[in-house]
Amino acid sequence: MPILQKKGALSYLINRSDDCIIGGTDYENDWNTNVELSDTKLIFKRLLMGGLSQEAPEIFEEIVGLRPKRSCVRFDFDENFSNVFHNYGHGGAGFTVAWGCAIELAEIFYLKVK
Prior knowledge:
Layout: E1 3-4, E2 11-15, E3 20-23, H1 37-49, E4 69-77, E5 85-90, H2 98-113
Antiparallel strand pairs: 1-2, 2-3, 4-5
């Protein structure tokens, strides 16, 4: 799963069994949840420049989501609600680190129940 990241140029490609996810953007203080043609073109341009494809891919669906980013990831139990666990602030890399976070959380629950 290639990830290219430099300030203002987050790019990723996540292969799946029948398709793949191509993204992304990392604008600061941008709360726009509309699909923007300029962003789609930018993502395609990065894909082609990275040498991963010779032509723009077929689009099945375009989705925009907000990826909250913090100075550090929040990964802990809530102080007021013991059954609530916080795991956010990964920014645009949230999906790519989900497996590692899930494994670590499973280990925490295992030790807590044990």
